[in-house]
């Protein structure tokens, strides 16, 4: 198992979203002019978008959406028990019953609860990875150099065209890497849990 559990990573990600939302609301220049945004933008040859220099740039709205996203993640990760938590409770219950029964094996609800956390976050992580991967590819493939739009014309872009900037690309790239990390961590946890259940079942049959 990795150094950090999936639950710890998701909670840290929610904290990161809260901090990012505060900066977007109070001091958006700290994000738009950060070294990371500049570095990735220069490396991928993505031009600075003039839309983020306008007074009506929706930084406050972005901050609210990030806070909502963080709250949803915190609620789900807190209310849905992790696999290890279910197994730990099962071990306690089995020890109290003098080891006469395999609680997890005889309780379909416990089995379902043990798998629910992994299923939910695997689905969420996979969908978010695909979403941010698509956004990053969309921005990279739509660089002004590639689609032949001048700086003056880019100022009038609306809709999806407003996504084509360094800030959104940097955020999408970081989210894509994070959710890939979560997917790998969840896979390791599932493998560890499967091995633990198999060992417990073998011990029970002996």
From TrEMBL:
Transmembrane segments annotated in the record for this chain: 120-140, 167-186
Pfam families named among the record's database cross-references: Ilm1 (PF10311)
Assigned keywords, A-Z: Membrane, Signal, Transmembrane, Transmembrane helix
Signal peptide (UniProt feature, chain positions): 1-21
Recorded superkingdom: Eukaryota
Keyword Methyltransferase attached: no
Protein name: Increased loss of mitochondrial DNA protein 1
Organism of provenance: Byssochlamys spectabilis (Paecilomyces variotii)
Lineage of the organism: Eukaryota, Fungi, Dikarya, Ascomycota, Pezizomycotina
């Amino acid at each position: 198992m990795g150094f950090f559990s999936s639950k710890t990573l998701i909670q840290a990600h929610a904290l990161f979203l809260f901090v990012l939302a505060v900066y977007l609301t109070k001091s958006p220049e700290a994000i738009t002019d950060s070294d990371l945004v500049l570095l990735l933008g220069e490396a991928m040859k993505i031009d600075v978008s003039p839309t983020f220099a306008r007074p009506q740039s929706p930084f406050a709205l972005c901050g609210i959406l990030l806070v909502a996203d963080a709250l949803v993640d915190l609620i789900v990760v807190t209310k849905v028990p992790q696999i290890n938590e279910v197994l730990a409770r099962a071990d306690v219950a089995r020890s109290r019953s003098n080891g006469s029964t395999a609680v997890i094996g005889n309780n379909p609800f416990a089995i379902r609860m043990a798998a629910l956390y992994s299923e939910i976050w695997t689905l969420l992580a996979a969908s978010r990875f695909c979403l941010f991967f698509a956004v990053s590819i969309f921005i990279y493939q739509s660089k002004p150099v590639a689609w032949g739009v001048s700086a003056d014309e880019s100022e009038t872009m609306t809709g999806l065209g407003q996504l084509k900037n360094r800030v959104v690309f940097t955020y999408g790239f970081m989210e894509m890497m994070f959710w890939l990390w979560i997917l790998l961590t969840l896979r390791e946890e599932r493998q560890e849990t499967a091995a633990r259940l198999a060992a417990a079942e073998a011990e029970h049959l002996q």
